[in-house]
Design brief:
Layout (H helix, E strand, L loop, with lengths): L1 H17 L1 E6 L24 E6 L4 H24 L2
Antiparallel strand pairs: 1-2
Helix pairs in contact: 1-2
Length: about 80
């Protein structure tokens, strides 16, 4: 239980601090090869999947709420760990 609370708190606090959330961007496949003599009109390359940080667009109240919930989760996980539960 303390590990779950720690992970939740560790996710919420940075979102509130930096006002950014990760977004998964799938990769692109390479274009199909053309037959001999054909010219490719668009030079699109293959791109690997990646994760971008995008703005979370949080209000001050939203940032305060995420900070309070994340900090509380971190404190409870610390106390549960110290108590041995």
């Amino acid at each position: 239980m303390s590990l779950v609370l720690f992970l939740v708190g560790a996710a919420l606090v940075p979102i509130a601090m930096f006002n950014k959330v990760p977004r998964y961007v799938p990769g692109r496949l390479p274009p199909p090869r053309s037959g001999p003599g054909a010219q490719a009109t668009a030079a699109r390359r293959a791109a690997p999947p990646r994760v971008h940080l995008v703005p979370a667009r949080l209000t001050e109240q939203g940032r305060a709420l995420l900070t309070a919930l994340g900090g509380s989760a971190l404190l409870v996980s610390l106390l549960l760990t110290l108590l041995g539960h």
